[in-house]
Design brief:
The chain is mostly helical. It has six helices and no strands. The chain is elongated, with a radius of gyration of 25 Å.
Length: 175
């Protein structure tokens, strides 16, 4: 039963016969893409274009806001040392956030380190957005990693469900 509405959930169909989907492991969804990355259907190309454009627009808007913050520091006349520190902080954090995000597209990162670096990644948000923009030119962000995991899970499932025929102890031996 659903906690919010009190309506029962339908029982999951593991055979795949009624839904038309194969039995076995299900592909992991990717944000903005769902499972369209598996067969590159359902507007996959247009979604990649939209994610690339959206991340680039968001990065530009973020830079615009950072420019206002820098102007605020200049108006406050905090000094050139503080201005240089702020610019260096955003530049370094953005570069490191880009690198970390790019690595997360090809391997699973430790969740504890991800949680501890959340603030750092927020400071370098421009780098995160630019990593998503750049990755959309070749694939959906994280598609390669999820495809490898999904194919491995499918192969393991196939090996587990493949049945032997007959009893091996009654097998006739060649003389």
């Amino acid at each position: 039963m659903s906690d919010e509405s009190g309506t029962p959930h339908p029982a999951p169909d593991t055979s795949g016969a009624a839904t038309g989907t194969p039995a076995g492991p299900r592909p992991e969804e990717i944000r903005f893409f769902g499972t369209t990355w598996v067969d590159h259907d359902g507007g996959y190309t247009w979604r990649r274009v939209a994610v690339a454009a959206g991340s680039l627009v968001a990065a530009a808007a973020g830079c615009f806001v950072l420019r206002f913050a820098y102007d605020g520091l200049a108006i406050a006349d905090v000094g050139s040392f503080v201005n240089i520190l702020v610019v260096l902080m955003f530049a370094i954090c953005s570069a490191l956030a880009f690198r970390r995000t790019w690595e997360s597209f090809s391997k699973r990162l430790n969740p504890e380190s991800q949680a501890s670096l959340r603030g750092f990644m927020m400071i370098g948000f421009v780098g995160v957005l630019l990593a998503h923009f750049a990755r959309c030119f070749s694939e959906a962000p994280g598609e390669k990693l999820r495809r490898q995991e999904y194919e491995t899970a499918r192969e393991q499932y196939e090996r587990r469900t493949t049945r032997r025929t007959g009893n091996p102890s009654k097998k006739k031996r060649k003389n």
